[in-house]
């Protein structure tokens, strides 16, 4: 079962980064592989054109009535523009997850826990930059602890074409592993002020 | 009879409303679709075009919506179950042929994924402002059936129901989605084919010499034939007699036009599709449909928490309007609250049915998003006072 009664999530980035697929995987994991409810909506407005892309998922232990995300508990950003646009909407005490090479944060909002992952670089290590969304999804799974990793892995497997399964599952595990290592380190050392990541900026 | 397994994608899926609607058409037995792309409805036929080669059937992208809405009727008379898909501007273009389908009693389905209007309006954002157009958009007196799903699951389930009703009553059926439901992704369970009931075409059992194309059966609906089966038949939009030939006289007109409306009477009350809750002790009843019914449900929960005796009346079959059900409620409740993503359309029907016996409060919204549940809650609170 899901851990929380209701969680609102927004995932945003550039068109082509696989924002929608990442949201669909998370929604599918909750709704199909973990016995909860999920509603995903996408931004189809004019702002969805010209490079930006955004998707919203609501996860719940009960049927979801209101379909839109108003104040996300979790914001995942994969571009600076997405961060600038959506960070102000994040719920106080919420979680911010970012592609740390693509998003620069000057000041983390009060009470927000911010996690960073070099998802594009990790994806490139697998030989294909396109799977950065699934690396992000793995990292999301590890640091939010909302969903069972197995449920999300099954959702990844169920959401990509057969020829791409192996690569995407590797990408998921890579992000998950990176996030798990980070969480272990934080458990040992405690949170710091800035973005929580395994790599300290030079 | 059961659905043809070839068209049924049995399993648990995470689908948006448009794609679920497409799976509904395939499960219902539709093997012909014609369409002209328009946001936010295109995904329905996009998926159909991808799926139909393996199922066996035809999709044609036509030159425009007029062509699409008449191509499906050709397919119907060729024996196929057929549908088209559009949104506001395209729906306006289809009106002439919706009238023809009603007049010739061609069973077919029109999917309208509603967006903000008038004119090209808000292509990517929701509205429910075509509800009156669905009922009255073509000229003359006729009846249609309109269904309003509020989730991707219902987009699947009700699309099958829509095709079944089209065959039973031989009318055009309007699937009135909205952009929010069409583009919303949720879990959709598609059962095995042997658990899906589909209504076959009501083909005549009479030999060619005795067959009269528009001779009504006991339920006021005539039986059909299909082209190429050796029956002579004539189909025309002109007023026609039971033989199907034009007959320009007052008696034929009266008999035909009355029957086109009367045949739908069973659906107006007894068989109307509604979802109700907490009506037994209700003082205030929220009447809603489509995506608005989900937002209204949240307001209803809050109202009940505040101790207000609020009840739910969700319209699923909007046309024929379930006037009898509303009339019955009007005698015992204080007020109806009617939120909808238009400036007040179905509320007119609620007012008509309530006939002054209960207050009717419209909560209009011009569209582009859904209501804020607090606005509906406030109306419930005030209505209960």
How does this model look, in words?
Chain A is an alpha/beta fold. Chain A contains 6 helices and 6 strands. Chain A has a 6-stranded mixed beta sheet, with helices on both faces. In chain A, strand 4, helix 2 and strand 5 form a beta-alpha-beta unit. In chain A, helix 4 (132-144) packs antiparallel against helix 5 and helix 4 (132-144) packs parallel to helix 6 (165-189). In chain A, 51% of the residues are buried. Helices cover 38% and strands 21% of the residues of chain B. In chain B, helix 1 (17-28) packs parallel to helix 2 (42-55). Chain B is globular and about 65 Å long. Chain B has 385 residues and is of the alpha/beta class. The mean pLDDT of chain B is 97. The chains are: A alpha/beta (202), B alpha/beta (385). Chains A and B meet through helix 1 and strand 2 of A and strand 1, strand 9 and helix 10 of B.
